[in-house]
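Input set for joint prediction.
Command: fold jointly, output tokens.
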Amino acid sequence: MGSKKLFINTMGCQMNVYDSGQIQRLLAPLGFSVTDRLEEADLIIVNTCAIRAKAEQKAFSFLGRLAPLKERKPELIIGIGGCVAQQEGRQILSRMPYVDLVFGTQAIRRLPQTIQRITAKRCRVVDVEMETTVSPDDFSTDIPHMSEICEYVTIMRGCDNYCTYCVVPYVRGRESSRPPEEILTEIRGLVANGVREVTLLGQNVNSYGQKEGLCRFDQLLAMVNGIDGLGRIRFTTSHPKDLSQELMAAFNSLDKLCPHIHLPVQSGSDAVLKRMNRRYTRDQYLEKVERLRRLLPSIAITSDIIVGFPGETESDFQLTLDLIRQVQYDGLFAFIYSDRPNVPAAHFDHKIAEAEKKERLQAVLALQDGFTAQKNQALVGTVQKVLVDGLGKTGPHHPEEGMPDDRGAVDHWAGRTGTNKIVHFASAGSTGGLNERLTGHTLAIMIEKAMSHSLWGHIISSPAESVAKGE
Ligand code: SAH
Ligand code: SF4
Ligand code: F3S
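tokens >
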């Protein structure tokens, strides 16, 4: 079918990253290869996020920029997918006359036929149908992923939790899990292609397989742990209400499971948690954190916080700050509450003023910055196992003074610790060839310096050593 160019802009969470990978793989047989240059694209896909109003605005403002491109090149196909597409559906066609295709979160597997139809008939298509269960061909396991070192694997889709602020259950549909065999086959394929680390994705992995009677999440993890050649396993997200004893125990029993859990608390106030429909109390949450740390003292814990939920009083907010002080997270994502169409909280009274929400956000971020810095500082002088995922993003020299620059010409690499902290390290006088040899290996790195959101160190083990140890 000749060679055509696909430009794909992925917004939002890891689910969308995974879906964009699927889209690339499904469209490859039609002759599409990926470009990062908008002007040369024959097909532009925008994979959108609807979680907050800002995310949605970002999608529409990017789409707005595409109108002149379409004018210059009428045969260009423009498609909008993901959560905004699912939410807005047909309305997008009237709002944006140059958009050819609106496809929802469960329409990805039909994309090849849809694109062929649009090419042949020059028609406009809306495909936002939702199904309640995953069908085997929703996920293409037979077409290899791009050989990255770390990959995402979606193990379930949708969400049944209906937190009152959240659009996910509406735009991703009912919770539904993929069978373990399918997941294992996909991961084995990834490992054969050089992938060393997988992150298993679901909105609430702890309820994996329950509806379908497949197996428990910790049992799935044990199966994944048995895959030869795989180095590390991560997962996200575990809802605090469902964090089970078995999953906690898995952190000790499964050697490949990274010592990190993202356990979003959202608020430290029971009154707010109740109105959010989170179905746990502050005490229950803190108890689970304590138990995790008793089982594995080195475990890293991260969280999400929403500030300015409708009706959040100053004392509710103080309870959130107090919880952050008590837990001392390794990292935190904080969000300003954003009204979403048709979710229950959109109709709640006592909305918080924008200025107040911004102040609360700043207070959370400032508090957490102190803990992040302390946690990073505590690692200086320790040796960490770092899975190298390539050259550092900031280029060969570190922006902060006093680091590798003063040692002459260096390349610099980046990787992560098991606790998910970013580590940069340099190797003086190296060549590009070394990059290939380091990428994908787990190295012992002596941490020299803590930055605000990352660490710097130097190699103390050779790649050969780490391979021998099977890390
Ligand atoms: N399933 C995951 C979260 C998915 S959304 C979980 O339950 O943890 C990621 C984060 O976005 C949420 O944890 C929440 O903190 C934030 N979020 C969701 N809806 C939001 C809204 N309407 N306004 C602000 N933040 C929101
Ligand atoms: Fe949204 Fe709650 Fe489901 Fe997470 S668990 S996706 S916050 S509804
Ligand atoms: Fe993810 Fe955003 Fe959709 S967070 S599930 S891409 S609404």
